[in-house]
Design brief:
Layout: H1 5-17, E1 21-22, H2 25-30, E2 36-43, H3 47-59, E3 65-68, H4 77-85, E4 89-94, H5 96-99, H6 104-119, E5 127-129, H7 157-160, E6 167-170, H8 198-206, E7 213-218, H9 227-249
Parallel strand pairs: 1-2, 2-3, 2-7, 3-4, 4-5, 6-7
Length: about 250
């Protein structure tokens, strides 16, 4: 079974066995290691799942970055603080062009307020957009007028990573070739790797056929060991993929 916590742990252990170093996004931007992986987590929902990932990493001396949305299903103060206390980076998963209905000035005001609220809990130096696939607004559009670096932020993955150098993996669509059904979680890259299952990535790692730098984007709420939850997530995500492909990606 794929997309289980057990399979995630196997992937993490394989990365360790292959002598990859692990950096948060903040640390990578300041001084990147030669052979490195960044573990990014978009905490869209069920933040307890992200805490479980954070603990698994901590047990192995590994650090990642966790991006929290400013919505009740993501914003759990106790979990935000606990993840930071484990040595992980915490960032803001912004979606204010969506919540402001496309009003860019209102979106900026909301962005600043949410960032300030998060910084009252933990240090924040990087941000990452939320795809909002059902929205007609692209949350990155806010940067056509404003500059996040004026707020003492040093990076946003879609702007501050050279994806011709850093291979990008995302579990969007509950699959590793989710670019086929993704509305906005896409990057431009000269790399031409395509993987469907986690085992495909593990196999490539063991054969040493992957580049020295890459970023994983995980949505921990999609990873379950409980059979009932696992099946429910599979059915729901497959249905979402059909809707996204027909009504959003095709347009």
């Amino acid at each position: 079974m794929d997309f289980t916590v057990k399979k995630y742990t196997e992937l993490l252990d394989t990365l360790i066995e292959q002598n990859y170093s692990f950096q948060t996004f903040d640390a990578y931007l300041k001084k990147a290691n030669d052979k490195v992986v960044m573990l990014r987590h978009d905490v869209d929902d069920l933040p307890g799942h992200s805490l479980r990932f954070a603990k698994i990493q901590h047990e192995r001396g590994v650090k990642g970055v966790y991006y929290f949305r400013a919505v009740p299903q993501s914003w759990d103060v106790a979990i935000i603080k606990e993840i930071a206390s484990l040595g992980h980076e915490v960032g803001y998963h912004y979606e204010t062009m969506d919540t402001a209905g496309g009003n860019i000035d209102m979106a900026w005001d909301q962005f600043k307020q949410h960032l300030e609220d998060l910084r009252k809990l933990v240090p924040v130096s990087t941000i990452c957009m939320h795809g909002s696939p059902r929205s007609k607004f692209d949350n990155k559009e806010i940067w056509k007028k404003y500059d996040y670096k004026t707020l003492n932020l040093i990076g946003e993955p879609y702007y501050d990573i050279d994806f011709d150098k850093v291979l990008y993996f995302t579990d969007t669509g509950r699959r590793w070739d989710g670019f086929k059904v993704s509305v906005r979680d896409k990057v431009k890259s000269n790399y031409d790797y395509t993987f469907h299952a986690t085992d495909d990535i593990i196999s490539a790692l063991k054969k040493s056929t992957l580049p020295n730098q890459f970023m994983f984007n995980f949505h921990p709420q999609r990873w379950h060991d409980n059979n009932i939850q696992w099946t429910k997530e599979l059915i729901i995500q497959n249905a979402k993929n059909v809707v996204k492909r027909v009504f959003f990606v095709s347009k």
